[in-house]
Amino acid sequence: MKVQIPPPPGPATAEVDMTVRVRFQFNVTPFTALQTVNAYLLMNVGHMVSADEPTTMLLNDGAFWQVPVFCAYPDLGHREYLGGLLVDAESGIVMLQGSSFSSPEEIKNRAEERYRSLTAPATGT
Asked: Is-contact 83 100, C-beta < 8 A?
């Protein structure tokens, strides 16, 4: 839930003391989030795509692990960042909502676009 608080009434030099408390439970470790995303990618996208180290991310509706997704292009000796997937820190579910991708097909398409951009001949003008 996003909260917006209007400015306090009174003079411009008014002092404000505000405390925000967020409570949630982490049931999923970073290692488990990494494994979960790698399994998701292997089952839904393919073997050239993999996850990297997750970072914690708080969103409007809870705590999530932000897991970066990369695609390896061995023939080019290159690895490209594609975006990130969210893993719910309580349930361990991969969340497409709020992630960089709306579907596994979008991950595949982005990997193919990156490959084409890496292998496209340079055009000189």
From this structure: yes
101: β partners: none
Of 52, 54, 47, 95, which is closest to residue 70 (Cα–Cα)? 52
**What's the pTM?**
0.75
Produce one character per residue of 92-124: b if its CB has 16 or more CB atoms within 10 Å, e if not: eebbeeebbbeebebbbebbeebbeeeeeeeee
Radius of gyration of the chain (CA): 20
Q: How many CA atoms lie within 13 A of 11 on its CB side?
A: 3
**72, containing H or E segment:** strand 62-73
pLDDT digits (tens, 9 = 90+) for 8-49: 666 667 677 888 777 777 889 999 999 999 999 999 998 889
Helix/strand/coil for 105: helix
Which tens digit of pLDDT belongs to each residue from 97-109? Answer: 989 999 999 999 9
